[in-house]
Each structure stands twice: as C-alpha cells, then as structure tokens.
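Inverse folding, one chain.
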C-alpha cells in the first residue's frame, strides 16, 4: 500500500512473478529495473518470497538489496555482478532477516 500523492495509503497493483509477469516488468522498464519514472513505474520495487522481502530495488539511488541463502549466494557469485555484503544504510532493513510475534 502506498500513495505518492500524499492522500493516505491505498492499495496498489502487484504482480505475482511468473514467466509472463517477469517479461512484462522487463518490457515496462526497458530491461532496467533501476529505471526511474516515479509517475509511471514503482519507485522502490519490492520482491517477496512468502511474506519476506527477497529483493529490494531503490531506483533513483541505483542500488538493490538481495537476501540470499548460502547456496543462492554461491550461484549469484558465478554471475560476476559487483556487490558488497551488508545492508545499505538507506534500506532500513536489519542485517539479518528475522520474524517475531507481535506483542499482545
């Protein structure tokens, strides 16, 4: 839920990742997930696995955060994508994912 026009929160369209939706996203961004068009594209892409953030893209900062298991990271390193460990200061994400039960 987000509303960039400052009129409170409202539901926003979301895509479930499938081969078709991945193709649509890449077409809409001209193949660049860091594309920045705040009035047309999401400013900050969030990709979830279950209810946890897996991939967060902050387009105008030209950076992204991936949360990978050790085996996923081993595969990722084979791609040769320059990267560094640890959360980016702008992400507001903790260094390790965690989930706690809310206090009641």
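Residues assigned per position:
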């Amino acid at each position: 839920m987000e509303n960039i026009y400052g009129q409170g929160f409202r539901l926003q369209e979301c895509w479930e990742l499938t081969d078709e939706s991945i193709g649509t996203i890449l077409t809409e961004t001209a193949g660049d997930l860091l594309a920045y068009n705040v009035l047309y594209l999401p400013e900050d892409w969030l990709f979830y696995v279950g209810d946890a953030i897996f991939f967060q893209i902050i387009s105008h900062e030209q950076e992204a955060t991936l949360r990978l298991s050790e085996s996923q990271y081993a595969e990722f390193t084979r791609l040769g994508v320059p990267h560094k460990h640890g959360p980016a200061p702008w992400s507001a994400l903790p260094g390790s994912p965690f989930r706690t039960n809310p206090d009641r």
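The mean pLDDT is 77. Residues 19-28 form the longest helix (10 residues).
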